[in-house]
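PROTOCOL LOG
Step 1. Enter all chains and additional molecules of the complex.
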Amino acid sequence: MTGTDQRTGARASGPLGAFYAGNARSVMLRGWQATRSTNWLVVVSGFFEPIFYLLSMGLGLGALVGTITTESGQEVPYAAFIAPALLAVAAMNGAIYDSTWNVFFKMQFAKLYEGMLATSLGPLDVALGEISLALLRGALYATGFLVVMQALGLNLSWWALLALPAVLLIAFGFASVGMAVTSFMKTFQQMDWITFLLLPMFLFSATFYPLSVYPQPIQYVIQALPLWHGVELVRGLTTGQVDAGMLWHVLYYLVMILLGLIFTTRRLRTLFLD
Amino acid sequence: MPEPVIVAQNLVKKYQDFAAVDGISFEVAPGESFGLLGPNGAGKSTTMRLVGAVSTRTGGDLRVLGLDPNRYGPEIRSRLGVVPQADNLDTELRVRENLLVYGRYFGLPRAQVARRTDELLAFAQLEDKAKSKVDALSGGMKRRLTIARALINDPSILLLDEPTTGLDPQARHILWDRLFRLKEQGTTLLLTTHYMDEAEQLCDRLVVIDNGVIMAEGAPAQLIRTYSSREVLEVRFGSDLNADVAAQIAGMGDRIEVLPDRILIYSENGESELVRIVDAGLTPITSLVRRSSLEDVFLRLTGRTLIE
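Step 2. Run joint prediction.
Step 3. Record the structure below.
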């Protein structure tokens, strides 16, 4: 048996051999081609959504609210308070859209992954490729939004430059978990649950007002949710309130990324390489 | 004899308690065109998935290109071409892009993939459609594109799962012609079908599968010789009468099969059996003498028809 294998010159697959061919690039390339030839309009529309929120709530509502005091006691204009939150939300939404509805469609209807996994690609190539594409899109949105924030004078510190990698981290976390969750979904109704969970998280994660307005028990709940960590991380950077405690937010997302990737890879393997 | 490219020994695939493949053994030689013939649910597609290294066997042994698919999945898949039962072309990409992108999945260099893409578009007779959307193609064209895609990595074995199911007769003949060319060029083909004419056209050798087990194995002509007579007389007396008539003509020919809509009389000479029936005072509504086919082999082996 081993003799045969040696004769044909195939190397024994390493521990990752069955999962990863080191070719996630080709999956990204495919996504880029597909975007170019069919759905670039959807991509462009995603860019404007957070900007509209910022203009209506930040500038409109902000005129009534005036300034607001952050967790660390700094007084900032209302628009500068919610802009980083909207940036984190945009990262979440972009990543979730790409990793849930898009992935769901490709899995259930287009049979795209079935085709990919009949080649030498492994499930981790597919997962990383799809997620990287979502990140690339997130990076584009985030850069555009940061430029708008700069133009409106809402970046209060040079730390704001680090908001870009922070946003990518957030997008990576949501994309990775989103794809893992989606791989368990079978119907459109189940997919709607995702939207059902995301909306309250968007509204209540200290997005539009400080966490301190809640009673203590509610604060714990909010602090357990991923978006709050994202909002706090980005807000700390764009307002210049940087401290070592922010590393906890980073750690939260690193764990999300890792868990998401593990579940996605294993699930894709179960689904398409049983 | 050259070393076989596929060796299956007592291959088993179970899903919970259900054995989709229940101990089948076969070998495929390089350049051979080998068929798995059987009705829906016989275990053909599961066998294809096992050979295609996208499914892990539950028992028995399997070697594809000398390697164990359970351990060398990616290596094996890089040398296979797969045409799945249902088209899974990338509908977000145009025809030519489908080939270019698929080639990159194998990690092949861009220039090589581009060259191969042009050759394959010509082979699949889709040069005019290179820039079309996939959804705009006819069923036959989609299948040809899927076959072209499966050839992008110059595979050692081409796996075809029901390659012409759902196509109209003309599209099927075009496809057979293409597959026949591949066969002439020495490509090893492993195909499943429930069409006996397809198996007869394309397969050097085949196994008849039912309920996950092999019922018979051989070349199409040899199987027909072994399990059926040279000719078949088909007579119809109307649905209500068939059973009564069958009792009256019992003993005619080598063997008689009564189907809901017709009676089959197996014989070396169909015409003379028809004369005997008419002499017995019976008048069939329609009668037809034909050569035995794999359909008859299957009926003999399982008591059922292939397409129900």
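Step 4. Note key features.
Strands of chain A lie at 67-69, 75-77.
Residues 24-272 of chain A form one domain.
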